[in-house]
Amino acid sequence: MSAIGERIIRCASCDGFGWFEDEFSGEVEDCDWCAGAGYVYRDGAGRDSPIPPADYVSVAGELERLELERLRELGYQGSAKKPWRQAIRKDTRLGLDPYDDEESS
Ligand SMILES: [Zn+2]
Asked: How far is the CA of 50 from the centre of ligand 1 (A)?
C-alpha cells in the first residue's frame, strides 16, 4: 500500500501527541489529522494521510524510532520515566502501562 516517495512524518497538527486537550473543558480528543497516531504518511506530492490502524504493525518500528526522537526533544532521557507513566500520556492509549507491572508496590 506504500506509494512511491511515501514516508512517515510527525503529525503537523498535533506535533506527535495524537490528541488535543481542550483548554477550556479539559476534554481530550484524538487528533483528526493523524487519527490519534501522532504520525502520518506523507506521499511524494507532499500530501499527508493518516496511517490506517491495519498498517500499525508494519510501521511500528519506524513509529517507535520517531517517538523516541520526539521524547528526546522533550527532554525524556529514556530511563527515568516510561511514556505511559508520564502525566502527559494520561487518558491516552499511551497512558496505559503495557506491562502492568507492580508500580504501586
Ligand atoms: Zn495529529
From this structure: 8
